[in-house]
């Protein structure tokens, strides 16, 4: 390091480093916008500074169902264990008060027979085992109740009632957690990206939805909401402003028959928040389109809801979904490997408002696409023709190289005869 410092001056090194840093373009990543609904349907919302925590205990059953599985299992185990220990202490106190713990009562010297409240309860361990037998209704035959103590009968009734309540609450909580509606929503899938293309002469926002299970979703309906930050004329800033947008559905009841993957379409018209957005403006827009699919599970009858969202970066302008349903030997087959695949199609880059004001833009776009398609076909045909000509020429050359030349033979009579070998 000392030799290098002596050869290269320090001022030159610093100047060179500064020049290299100036030459390198500094790319600043665009700050990632927090989305309201994640792609898997979870709400990206954090609740903070909640002062009235006691409201959650008023609805204890819903609180238990909303807890994570590890917390629910801990509460499930501790509720039974604590109840067994509590009533074991009560049985031990009953036996101690009656004198069943006295060693002299095991072999009484008098002629009167000693009758304990609970037979074979001589310690806290035996009282704990008897508590488990009473609450779980397991009878091993060694410990049993007698008619000696009315207090013991009261404790028995109380423990049975408490045990039934704990069983009902805990088992109901476990059942509700295993049969929650969002578990069924895991098999309802949405396309990773949405598209904007022309359908029936109108710009449309489209996405694909499908169901992986054979059991259907009854009365399924789709809603679309646009969430964006808006400011009112009074200057009030609304960070999460929700606007419902209609879904193009020929059925009046707005229900879909989700037996196969469907493409849900929203026509961008005057009622749509996307009416004034063009292809160049879409990237700069700070909006999020939330898709909500609701329906009733056919097997359980529980209402389920599947959600997803699309931000501006996930919307492809001028694309269309490829068909994935085909008919094979009298059966409709769905290829889910192409579920989110799209192809590029001709679409005007202007907004829907400009398209309504100047319908000629759509005609010009379609004509250009038709001309480009014809030119591509011509190029393809010319390339095929050239390839075929080259192949024929190469085949002729190879055949000409394989032809054997004619040889003339002279007979003694002087006549010539040509023969080919």
Automatic annotation (TrEMBL):
Residues 384-397 have a biased composition (Low complexity). Keywords: Ion channel, Ion transport, Membrane, Phosphoprotein, Potassium, Potassium transport, Transmembrane, Transmembrane helix, Transport, Voltage-gated channel. InterPro entries: Ig_E-set, IRK_C, K_chnl_inward-rec_Kir, K_chnl_inward-rec_Kir6.1, K_chnl_inward-rec_Kir_cyto, Kir_TM. Its main location: membrane. Pfam families: IRK, IRK_C. Residues 37-180 form the Potassium channel inwardly rectifying transmembrane domain. One of its GO terms (cellular component) is monoatomic ion channel complex. It comes from the Eukaryota. It is a multi-pass membrane protein. The record marks 167 as: Role in the control of polyamine-mediated channel gating and in the blocking by intracellular magnesium. One of its GO terms (biological process) is potassium ion import across plasma membrane. SUPFAM superfamilies: E set domains (SSF81296), Voltage-gated potassium channels (SSF81324). It catalyses: K(+)(in) = K(+)(out). GO terms for molecular function: ATP-activated inward rectifier potassium channel activity. Residues 188-358 form the Inward rectifier potassium channel C-terminal domain. The chain crosses the membrane at residues 73-94, 151-175. Residues 372-397 are annotated as: Disordered. It is found in: Membrane. Gene3D superfamilies: 1.10.287.70, G protein-activated inward rectifier potassium channel 1. PANTHER family: ATP-SENSITIVE INWARD RECTIFIER POTASSIUM CHANNEL 8 (PTHR11767:SF11), INWARD RECTIFIER POTASSIUM CHANNEL (PTHR11767). Belongs to the inward rectifier-type potassium channel (TC 1.A.2.1) family. This is KCNJ8 protein. It comes from Regulus satrapa. The gene is Kcnj8.
């Amino acid at each position: 390091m000392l030799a290098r410092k002596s050869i290269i001056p320090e001022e030159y090194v610093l100047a060179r480093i500064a020049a290299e840093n100036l030459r390198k373009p500094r790319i600043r990543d665009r700050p990632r916008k927090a989305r309201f609904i994640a792609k898997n349907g979870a709400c990206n919302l954090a609740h903070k500074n909640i002062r009235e925590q006691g409201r959650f205990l008023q609805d204890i059953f819903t609180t238990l169902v909303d807890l994570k599985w590890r917390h629910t299992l801990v509460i499930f185990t501790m509720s039974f264990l604590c109840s067994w220990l509590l009533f074991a202490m009560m049985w031990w106190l009953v036996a101690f008060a009656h004198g069943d713990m006295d060693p002299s009562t095991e072999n009484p010297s008098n002629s009167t027979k000693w009758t304990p409240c609970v037979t074979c309860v001589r310690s806290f361990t035996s009282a704990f085992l008897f508590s488990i037998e009473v609450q779980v209704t397991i009878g091993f035959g060694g410990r049993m109740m007698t008619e000696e103590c009315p207090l013991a009968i009261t404790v028995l009734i109380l423990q049975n009632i408490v045990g039934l309540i704990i069983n009902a609450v805990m088992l109901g909580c476990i059942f509700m957690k295993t049969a929650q509606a969002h578990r069924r929503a895991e098999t309802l899938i949405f396309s990773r990206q949405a598209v904007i293309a022309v359908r029936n002469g109108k710009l449309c926002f489209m996405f694909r939805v499908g169901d992986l299970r054979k059991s259907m979703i009854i009365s399924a309906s789709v809603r679309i909401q646009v969430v964006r930050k808006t400011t009112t004329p009074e200057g009030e800033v609304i960070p999460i402003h929700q606007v419902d947008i209609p879904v193009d559905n020929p059925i009046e009841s707005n229900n879909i028959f989700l037996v196969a993957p469907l493409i849900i379409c929203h026509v961008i018209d005057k009622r749509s928040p996307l009416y004034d957005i063009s292809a160049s403006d879409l990237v700069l827009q700070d909006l999020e389109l939330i898709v909500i699919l609701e329906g009733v599970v056919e097997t359980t009858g529980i209402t389920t809801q599947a959600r997803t969202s699309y931000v501006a970066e996930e919307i492809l302008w001028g694309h269309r979904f490829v068909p994935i349903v085909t008919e094979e030997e009298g059966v409709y087959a769905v290829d889910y490997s192409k579920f989110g695949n799209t192809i590029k199609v001709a679409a005007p880059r202007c907004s829907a408002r400009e398209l309504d004001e100047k319908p000629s833009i759509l005609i010009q776009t379609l004509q250009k696409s038709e001309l480009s398609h014809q030119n591509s076909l011509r190029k393809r045909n010319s390339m095929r023709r050239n390839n075929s000509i080259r192949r024929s020429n190469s085949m002729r050359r190879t055949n000409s190289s394989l032809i054997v030349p004619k040889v003339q033979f002279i007979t003694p009579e002087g006549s010539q005869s040509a023969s080919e070998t």
